[in-house]
Amino acid sequence: MSKRRFEVAPLSIYGGASTIGVYIFTNNAFTVVPMDVPDKVINSIRDTLGTTVVKASLAKSPLIGIFIVGNDNGVLIPSIVTEEEINELEKGGFRVSVIRTRYTAIANLILTNNKKTVVSPIIEKEFINLIRDTLGTEVIIDEICGTYLVGSIAVANDRGVLLSPDAKDEDVKKVRDYFGLPVSVGTVNRGGRSFLRSGLVVNNNGGLVGNDTTGFEIVRIMQVLGGE
Hints:
Elements (H helix, E strand, L loop, with lengths): L6 E5 L13 E2 L3 E4 L5 H11 L2 E4 L8 H4 L1 E2 L4 E4 L4 H9 L4 E4 L10 E3 L3 E4 L8 H8 L2 E4 L12 E3 L4 E3 L5 H11 L3 E3 L14 E3 L3 E5 L4 H11 L3
Parallel strand pairs: 1-15, 3-4, 6-7, 9-10, 12-13
Antiparallel strand pairs: 2-3, 5-6, 8-9, 11-12, 14-15
């Protein structure tokens, strides 16, 4: 069987919002989207990411992308998520762990792929073993690009890591050493800075970008995260 080509598709939801990473989570098997996403958008997600798409809410909110973080081994969610929502995720095929940290937007604080995880130093140390066991990876506690928002300013899959334009040469080298993968700097949504993940959702099969993302930005994403 030939290797699937890494594809990147522009996407908008909720009246043209380009901050798609706030609303969508994916690994290589499943993608979670808000309950009211239309079928046309779901079909585009399924075709691009090669996943089964699951509709859900988290904390009775459509902000899926900030309340869930994970990989193919498992996902972490904050304690504000309801029992019913947890059950729906588990029925959808996810191995779910609740992390009872004081922070709720945990996807902003954890950067992971299937082998390595960088955890923000503000997450309480008592939860590191839970993170390691759920995600099944080596865990590194550190800042990236001078911020504790390690899950916001970078996006990773098993092919590469893309950093925000705030990254310096030493950030690129550090993240390359951590993940053992190609690392570079890129943008989405016409040069939107810093919070890269708000406009980008990726797995090993492809990526979704905000509708304002340029062709040049898409090429860079494909080079770094698609091995193109």
